[in-house]
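Researcher: I'm preparing a figure for a lab meeting and need a structural model of a single chain. I don't have an experimental structure, so a prediction will have to do for now. The sequence is pasted below. Please return the structure as tokens so I can convert it later.
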Amino acid sequence: MARNGKNLTGRRFGHLVAIRPTDLRDRANRTVIWFCRCDCGEYKLANSNHLQYGGGRPCGCLRPGHKRRREA
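Model: Understood. Here is the structure written out token by token.
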């Protein structure tokens, strides 16, 4: 569970969906780092503050030339 008590599991933030919290913390503000899944299928770590207040930036899949993972 996040330090501030908010459970973000399953919530969508832009292109990312929060899967589970990790044991990692942001060095600057000690917020929880979440394991997230991008709409393209890739996985990304994201700070809980960035998710909640900055939206979920994609993993880089919107850059030209990025190869998206295919779902089976």
